Structure to design on (284 residues):
């Protein structure tokens, strides 16, 4: 993001639009601190912490606005319980994993193929003392088991780069979600794999068929992804975290991701009963 686009994001964010000055001040203070010290541990949501360095786009968005991906992160906070299993596909440095395991107390399978991101992820697990709740797998996910080329150095936008072989890619392990889960079944899956979602879902047949899986957050809504999810009983919904309500109305809070649910009544009950969380100066 450029400085202008970052400031627009900050001042229009649902959690900071009513107090944009405070958010801009957090941005300014971070810009100074992060140039003096390489890594900084910051307080985040409800006692959770983030270890962040300058240039981490998604993580710094959490510092400025509380929840960088507002609707999706709020849904995770309101949906999960200590007895649940959450799968974080494309975990990066672990923002969603921390919300799931540190704040909600859920077990988590965190999947990330980039070795540098894995180091940051494990550092955040140690900082939050949740290593015993989180299983980390250094692998890409797809429809088969093997190896695949993956980009290097693009932070949150690293992606599968099949067919490329240059200094900006590396060969990484390739797994299927079903092979990692075995007999376990998650309640919620978040996928951020930069357009490779359909391949990930093709390798998740057992998980998609299991009734325990109630919700999937996915970046891609291409026809193949939607068709496969609908075939397994999922439909697209939109979430209002302030009202804790679900609707088919696309005028709800905008998100770069899409929410697909199965057994919506059960999801609504969980959301309504979830405890409030301290985010910035508010309860959500």
């Amino acid at each position: 993001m450029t400085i202008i686009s970052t400031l627009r994001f900050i001042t229009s964010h649902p959690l900071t639009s009513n107090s944009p000055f405070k958010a801009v001040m957090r941005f300014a203070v971070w810009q100074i601190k992060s140039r003096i010290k390489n890594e900084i541990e910051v307080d985040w949501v409800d006692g959770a912490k983030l270890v962040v360095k300058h240039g981490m786009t998604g993580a710094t968005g959490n510092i400025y606005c509380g929840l960088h991906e507002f609707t999706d992160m709020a849904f995770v906070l309101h949906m999960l319980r200590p007895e649940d299993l959450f799968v974080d596909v494309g975990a990066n440095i672990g923002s969603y994993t921390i919300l799931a395991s540190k704040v909600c107390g859920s077990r988590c399978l965190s999947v990330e193929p980039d070795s540098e991101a894995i180091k940051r992820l494990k550092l955040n697990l140690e900082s939050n003392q949740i290593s015993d709740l989180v299983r980390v797998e250094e692998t890409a996910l797809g429809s088969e088991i093997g190896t695949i080329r993956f980009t290097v150095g693009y932070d949150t936008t690293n992606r599968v780069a099949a067919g490329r072989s240059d200094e900006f890619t590396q060969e990484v392990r390739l797994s299927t979600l079903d092979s990692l889960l075995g007999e376990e079944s998650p309640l919620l899956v978040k996928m951020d794999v930069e357009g490779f979602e359909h391949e990930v879902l093709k390798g998740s047949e057992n998980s998609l068929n299991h009734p325990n899986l109630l919700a999937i957050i996915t970046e891609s809504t291409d026809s193949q992804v939607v068709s496969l999810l609908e075939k397994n009983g999922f439909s697209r919904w939109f979430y209002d975290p302030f009202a804790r309500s679900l609707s088919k109305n696309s005028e709800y809070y905008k998100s770069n991701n899409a929410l697909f649910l199965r057994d919506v009544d059960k999801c609504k009950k969980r959301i309504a009963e979830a405890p409030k969380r301290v985010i910035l100066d508010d309860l959500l």
Residues 99 and 117 are 17 Å apart (CA to CA). The chain is about 35% helix and 25% strand. The domain at 69-283 is CATH 3.40.50.150 (Rossmann fold). The longest strand covers residues 169-175.
